[in-house]
Amino acid sequence: MAIIDEELTHMDKNSAPDSAPYHHGNLRASLVAAAIELLARVDGGAPSLREVARLAGVSIAAVYRHFPSKEALLAEVAVDGFARLNTRWRENLPDVAQAGAEQRFQLLGEHYVQFALAAPAHYRLMFEHQDLRRFPDLERAARDCFLFVLDAAAATVREAGADARWALPAANAAWALVHGYVMLSLGGRLTLSGATLDLPATLLPRFLRLPPEALPGPR
Amino acid sequence: MAIIDEELTHMDKNSAPDSAPYHHGNLRASLVAAAIELLARVDGGAPSLREVARLAGVSIAAVYRHFPSKEALLAEVAVDGFARLNTRWRENLPDVAQAGAEQRFQLLGEHYVQFALAAPAHYRLMFEHQDLRRFPDLERAARDCFLFVLDAAAATVREAGADARWALPAANAAWALVHGYVMLSLGGRLTLSGATLDLPATLLPRFLRLPPEALPGPR
DNA sequence: TGTACATCAGTGAACGCGCGTTCACTGATGTAC
DNA sequence: TGTACATCAGTGAACGCGCGTTCACTGATGTAC
Fold first, then answer.
1. Taking CB atoms and an 8 Å limit, are A130 and B181 in contact across chains?
2. I want to staple B101 with a disulfide (CB 3.0 to 4.6 A). Which of A187, A206, B159, B194 is the partner?
3. Inter-chain residue contact B200 with A169, CB threshold 8 Å
4. Per-residue pLDDT of chain B (219 residues; tens, 9 = 90+)
5. A148 Cα to chain B: minimum distance (Å)
């Protein structure tokens, strides 16, 4: 979010006096913004470097002043996605004191699903890099989001009076549930029975047992 | 499963008398088998037609005698994946009478996860076709698997004495949970907290609330 | 204040590559008579 | 039983394409003196 807002501001600022200066000013952010814009257009897949450069109004080679490779550009785009998700949560979720931990956890899941369904290709890209270790920024952004989920899960587990060690597996299970729901939904796999079905927004509390009361503790 | 077994048998039969006859005999199945073999080799992504033809020992153009396009070949490969999963379930799951519906449902989930983790690229491919309507065989194979899950979910819901209308959303939630778990796991996203974690094999009953007892019926 | 110059951010053209697909063809097969 | 011929399943070469990346370059910027 931050990157794009900044960039749009910059673009406004620059486009007024002279439309196409030789030095762009903030091409790095513009390239990321262009890639996100292309991801938002139908058809899915990651855009080519050439398309990104074209939309940013710049030669292809200029990209290499700011990113060592296409992969690195796309990693930055993924980072931006996780940052937006994180911001969305921080700006919209109520305090535990206000809403209670369980309801807050549910709302977190709802925002997650809405975020993903609103930008399918961008969301997919966020999970496409196979080796996170090669992109520390991406790993950090993804971990920050996961830690946010973990916090919320821990509060819910605490609220329910269960063993705190449940928090980690519960957070993973919750993430798996919403991620799986999103991926199946985007792939058109949730109508296979013939019935139209959109799982209720209350996906998490209805179907996720948190914590599993019947068991003494995590194995 | 069926396709490949047949094919291997055929290959044995043929390789004995003359090693490379002009007419292959069952090239269609061999191409599918070759694609699956390539998917099993590291590195992920869908193989190129050229690689598939090379491994099958045939010219590239020969592929077009059996499939109208690369996409159609890969759709057949996906069909084969669903067929194998279905077979695996039918051959390994106990009766409801023996194991009880809930435990059977759990075992179904375990087999699903093991299937996916044993053949990651093949599994991914099974979910990659965006428009199932263009590949009726694929849609049918996927639906058959889903209906198998739905059956098992329905039995579990029945066993618990809950409203039968819970079966469909419960089946979808269960599928979302295991699919999400598999996809995150394959993408290396389940160790983001720093802790190594493999969700227990008892993923479904521990975390999936089936049916959600607190609620009167599906919304 | 003006100028020389190092540094930075762009350009335009070209590179080699592997891809899916198509073409005109040839060799093998099986069937009618 | 032998032969003509339609049909089918392969081959080998070529097509055009878009791709990521690299090259030698030029224009703009800012700083030391």
1. no
2. B159
3. yes
4. 444 444 433 343 333 334 456 677 799 999 999 999 999 997 678 999 999 999 999 999 999 999 999 999 999 999 999 999 999 999 999 999 999 999 999 899 999 999 999 999 999 999 998 889 999 999 999 999 999 999 999 999 999 898 888 888 889 889 999 999 999 999 999 887 765 455 555 566 667 776 655 344 444
5. 10
